[in-house]
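Reopening this ticket.

The earlier resolution said the output was attached, but the attachment link was broken on my side. Pasting everything inline this time so it's all in one place.
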Amino acid sequence: MEEPVLYAVENQTAIITLNRPERRNSINQALLTKLYDCIEMVSHADDIRVAIITGNGKSFCSGIDLDAVLTENLFDPRGDGTDLPDVFSACEKPIIGAVNGHAITGGFEIALNCDFLIASENASFADTHANVRIHPGWGMTQLLQQAVGRRRARQMSFTCRFISAQTALQWGLVNEVVAPGKLLERSKEIAKQICAVDKEMLGVVKKLIDYQDTTTLEDSFSHERKGFKIFVETHLKK
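Inline output:
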């Protein structure tokens, strides 16, 4: 039986591939368990600097497998109290979402929990929580408006309509749109650029950017300035 998530390492980059193409990479307990394990492997491996999450086949992830909703534990799949946003937020290394094909509802939330997204021309995005009558739980209502603005997020979530890769680019949801055959290549190229920067300061910058998710802009600005003063005192005044 095929693994529901594949894991490979190339040039300090972990490539995590959702691998249920026959089900459009829909989410079941086995997929979530392996995905969480893979992200934690990235977190703990000293030789890995960045991760890429993508999907095998024509979809990135079509969302929760409706056959698994009532029969499997999708919100505590490992039985350790850890949920999807917890796993992503605990990873201090950048995670690039390489979106091929559909990213729908729960699959869209996986993408939104990545640090940024590169999309193929055939990518599309939809929040269908209101259609499938499933309560959002992995950050959709917060992360989507953070990415595209509140009014566009409302439109997407209220209508449950798909937006194309080009619309996602115009709205700021994705960073770049590339030809389908170039998606992984371009994502690896960006990962290589990330690997080339100072490891310690990259971690500092990522933490500072993420810090604002938990507080106000004013506090985040003050937090950054305090860190800078400590940096000057410890590094530049020797």
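Reporter confirms the inline version is readable. Residues 5-195 form a domain with the 2-enoyl-CoA Hydratase; Chain A, domain 1 fold (CATH 3.90.226.10). The mean pLDDT is 95.
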